[in-house]
């Protein structure tokens, strides 16, 4: 039973990817069909035990900002300066 659910979820994922590729290529797509397939896939994944879990992004942001404060500033190189360095004897 679980194997069938996994296969169906994977098939729905492939169908969703195909619709997304068509959309990104500028082709017309049926958004209701996409939403229906995405909802069906979500329900299958929930049946398989997948749970939505909130991620505390504040902690990640604090760590990122703290790391940025401890890094030495990088020098900005102007494009003309880079060319001069490459062509130097």
Question: How would you characterize this protein structure?
Answer:
With 89 residues, the protein is mainly α. It has one domain (2-70). Helices cover 70% and strands 0% of the residues. The model has no long low-confidence stretch (mean pLDDT 84).
Question: Top keywords for this entry?
Answer:
mainly alpha, 70% helix, 0% strand, flat, single chain, 89 residues
Write the layout of secondary structure elements.
Layout: H1 2-24, H2 31-47, H3 57-70, H4 79-86
Helix pairs in contact: 1-2
Helix content range: 55-70%
Report on the biggest sheet: none
Helix/strand-derived category reads: mainly alpha
Give the topology string: H per helix, E per strand. Answer: HHHH
């Amino acid at each position: 039973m679980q194997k069938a659910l996994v296969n169906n979820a994977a098939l729905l994922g492939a169908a969703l990817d195909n619709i997304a590729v068509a959309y990104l290529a500028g082709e017309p797509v049926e958004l209701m069909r996409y939403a229906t397939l995405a909802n069906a896939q979500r329900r299958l994944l929930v049946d398989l035990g997948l749970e939505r879990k909130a991620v505390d992004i504040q902690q990640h942001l604090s760590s990122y900002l703290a790391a940025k404060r401890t890094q030495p500033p990088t020098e900005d190189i102007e494009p003309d300066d880079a060319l001069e360095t490459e062509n130097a004897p």
